[in-house]
Write a structure and sequence with these properties.
The protein is α+β, with helices and mostly antiparallel strands. It is built from twelve helices and five strands. Strands 2-1-5-4-3 form a five-stranded antiparallel β-sheet, sandwiched between helices. A hairpin with a 6-residue loop joins strand 4 and strand 5 (241-248). The longest helix is centred in the middle third of the chain and has 15 residues, at 82-96. The model has no long low-confidence stretch (mean pLDDT 90).
């Protein structure tokens, strides 16, 4: 199964614009008629589907990465159904709600789906803040001051934390980079200039980056700073969700968590 000709055309256009190339230059380099490329990008091909060889030559001319090439042919999965999300939230709450650990349930695209009582208490999330958190993407609280978790990050940490999370996200979702949900998220990130700058230059990060385990500082409403290791675990029964456990990284954070008036 392949994307529609219209979708492939839009993806080729996106790749060309990323590189700041003119249609005529890419068509000439690929040995393709410029008018055909224009029609392809606009989704008005005279034939039902562009030939694979034509697409390959255009991708070669654009000097795409292996990930970009795979993404051009990726078929977007349908969104998670409401009933599937609700069922997974119920299962999460059944074992996590009353535990002393700090747990967050996210879907595989990085959207918040639930958090247990201990985590809500540690972060001082009101019922209204928690409701507004659900359904939002986990990359956005670093930059969007209207979101509940924005004030739980220290200003001096925002750029470095976002860079690490963005690197992990782009690595995990490289093949989905032309999906509608992904493009909408990127458009939102681009409304914040400093985040857009990091996003566009994320490949320049130096040193090892661990995708599934990261350290972060969080600040409570009373000013208490907490230090956690973030450990993400895919759910074996349903790999379309994963649970992030925040594990205290120092003695003061462990004492703070032990004193929370929730959990068993």
């Amino acid at each position: 199964m392949m994307p529609s000709p219209e979708e492939i055309g839009k993806r080729l256009k996106e790749l060309r614009l990323r590189r700041g190339c003119q249609q005529s230059a890419i068509a000439r380099k690929a040995g393709v008629d410029a008018g055909s490329l224009s029609r392809m990008e606009r989704g008005i091909m005279q034939t039902s589907r562009p030939k694979p060889d034509t697409i390959d030559r255009l991708l070669d001319a654009l000097e795409v990465t292996d990930g970009e090439r795979q993404a051009v042919f990726h078929v977007e999965e349908p969104p998670l159904g409401d009933e599937m999300v609700a069922a997974q939230v119920r299962e999460f709450q059944a074992w996590a709600e009353e535990t002393p650990g700090l747990f967050i349930l996210l879907d595989k695209r990085g959207y918040y789906r639930a958090a247990n009582k201990t985590l809500r208490a540690a972060f001082g999330l009101s019922d209204d803040e928690y409701t507004r958190l659900l359904g939002g993407h986990s990359l956005l609280p670093f930059m969007d001051a209207s979101l509940p978790l924005y004030t739980r990050f220290l200003d001096e940490d925002r750029a470095s934390l976002f860079a690490k999370r963005a690197y992990s996200f782009k690595t995990l979702h490289e093949i989905e980079q032309f999906d509608g949900w992904y493009m909408a998220l990127v458009a939102r990130i681009r409304t914040f200039p400093w985040a857009a700058e990091i996003w566009d230059n994320i490949s320049q990060l130096e040193g090892p980056t661990f995708v599934m385990r990261q350290v972060g500082r969080y600040v409570c409403p009373d000013g208490t700073v907490l230090n956690f290791n973030n450990q993400a675990n895919l759910l074996m029964k349903n790999p379309r969700f994963h649970v992030v456990e925040l594990m205290p990284a120092d003695a003061s954070t462990r004492r703070f968590v032990r004193q929370l008036p929730v959990g068993s």
